[in-house]
């Protein structure tokens, strides 16, 4: 199993209780009509629960998917649900959305509108290349994949290294002289998870199925990379 998510930060630090108040009971319904089809599409936040200095909840929204059926294009309602977590650390309020990057970005913008009544209240979190390198150096023997971008070699956009012995090669240092470390896949010594981390704080755990354990890991291992 794989659990993917992305970490964001709020443009201003909010207390967990205030976030819960702003998000509580959020529920909007829209009527959708297309020919003979009528649906009620809902966007809501449910299950808000303070837990271990975090606030977790479920963001869900309905959308319409068009499918081919018996010679016709038919609208069918679908629901997307994503586990979300707010947590404060070192004066920064983080939002983690346990969903793949594209959908996580869309949900982050929607939560910004709910919390701040505007776009831009929820921002991408960033991990500097030097900090990402220190993350790799905590367990260099178990780093399996690295990507570099912002490469200064003409007509070369990205550089990558794969393999269990990449730390023993001079290529890692050579690539680091020509580009910035963008993505690392390594095994966490403390947790045993195989984790992929990007500079834009997208985090994938490749050997985990429990989303709450995912939140525990990013809180302890990834948030500190962002606030450094």
Secondary structure class reads alpha+beta
Strands, total number: 12
Strand count, sense and barrel status of the largest sheet are: 12 strands, antiparallel
Principal-axis shape equals globular
User: How many individual domains?
Assistant: 2
Radius of gyration, taken over Cα atoms and rounded to an integer in Å: 20 Å
Classify the beta-strand content into a percent band. Answer: over 45%
Write the H/E string, N to C: EHEEEEEHEHEEHEEEH
Oligomer: single chain
Number of helices: 5
Mean pLDDT: 91
Helix content: 25-40%
Uncertain runs are none
CA(first)-CA(last) distance:
31 Å
Can you walk through the features of this model?
The chain folds into two domains: 3-124, no CATH class; 129-199, no CATH class. The two termini are 31 Å apart. It is globular, with a radius of gyration of 20 Å. The longest helix has 17 residues, at 211-227. Strand 10 (180-187) and strand 11 (194-198) form a beta hairpin. Strands 1, 2, 3, 4, 5, 6, 7, 8, 9, 10, 11 and 12 form a twelve-stranded antiparallel beta sheet that branches. With 228 residues, it is α+β, with helices and mostly antiparallel strands. Helix content is 25%, strand content 45%.
